[in-house]
Amino acid sequence: MRSANKLAIPALLVSILLFLYIYLRERGNSRRMEVRDSLFKVNGLPALVDTLQLVSTNSNTTSGVDKEALLQHLSERYGPVSFVGIGPRNINLTPEEENRAATCLQNAVRDRDNNGSRFWGKNEHVRRTHHTYLKNENAVLIEAGGNKGNDAYEFVKLYNPRYIILEPLEEYTNILKEKFKNNSRVTVVNVGLGIKNEVVMVNIEGNNACATSKFSGANGKTPLYITNATEFLMKLGVGLFNVDLLTMNCEGCEFEALETILSTNLINYIKNIQFATHSTLKGLENPLGRYCKIQELLRRTHKPTYQYRFIWESWRRDDLL
Ligand SMILES: *[C@@H]1O[C@H](CO)[C@@H](O)[C@H](O)[C@H]1NC(C)=O
Ligand SMILES: *[C@@H]1O[C@H](CO)[C@@H](O)[C@H](O)[C@H]1NC(C)=O
Ligand SMILES: *[C@@H]1O[C@H](CO)[C@@H](O)[C@H](O)[C@H]1NC(C)=O
Ligand SMILES: *[C@@H]1O[C@H](CO)[C@@H](O)[C@H](O)[C@H]1NC(C)=O
């Protein structure tokens, strides 16, 4: 009894310190997020409606989205829209899906090698030239991982869609804003997509920071702003309208972003979804297995329109095929 009592006080102290550490760290992160959110409101999203302002000024909100006001606003702009609600989806694989995922995993390294050597060089431009439907005047393109805007430049030149570019590094956000400041159809937002709202301190890596990832250099000096993909898309009003293309080239963020989006029926509002897979990043948990599961979840609603497995691919909603 006595020795147990002696341990109780140090144990309590350690718990309190641990709690304080976690609490302060979370508070720091949420402060940074608040700053980010206020930037959001100031900049607005001119090309795609000012839905974020709308959400923040009205108190009748559900999951952060004022459905009535949003509906009215969007219907004025885009014609009639219907909102059926975003809810969770069953993400357990059926036995048949499990089998396919197992085969996918068995062939993963072979497919990655084969498809990588086929894609890079002569076929890599398909990720830009594939999306002619974006020429439609009302087409909405969302890109996660804008970097310096090399792909963005091509998308604008080819299609000039309503375009939201997401970039988690502030320095590159500013470069993108400068690059597209004359184009009112382009909006740049300093945020990346992931599983939850968080600020990760990273080290800048790679040529043009293009390899900077939340998975490589934690404990660095540069903040990476990441947001819950589902929540972000809902705040934009996705679910009340369709996104024509969500494209992601975001250094491993694709796993968390896809898993988050595929865990709800929000995926039904994304007509085309394109992503690069970064399966060799250190610090990523089980990338090949997760890729194979994502394939199965995506396959329930979409089918590939081009696919270099484990490299780059694009999927289209079944009703549009
Ligand atoms: C919220 O909705 C209710 C019912 O539709 C309405 O009576 C109320 O005025 C609304 N409040 C605001 C602030 O819009
Ligand atoms: C990817 O590699 C597999 C073989 O590993 C091959 O069957 C498939 O055709 C390749 N895909 C493309 C688009 O080249
Ligand atoms: C934007 O437009 C101004 C005035 O027409 C022009 O001087 C400037 O070079 C343009 N900037 C870019 C980045 O195209
Ligand atoms: C992400 O946002 C959605 C929609 O608000 C929510 O249901 C989900 O729990 C969030 N995920 C996490 C990990 O916070």
From TrEMBL:
The lineage of its organism: Eukaryota, Metazoa, Spiralia, Lophotrochozoa, Mollusca. It comes from Potamilus streckersoni. The keyword Transmembrane applies. The keyword Coiled coil does not apply. InterPro entries: FkbM_mtfrase, SAM-dependent_MTases_sf. Keywords: Membrane, Transmembrane, Transmembrane helix. It comes from the Eukaryota. The chain crosses the membrane at residues 6-24. This is Methyltransferase FkbM domain-containing protein.
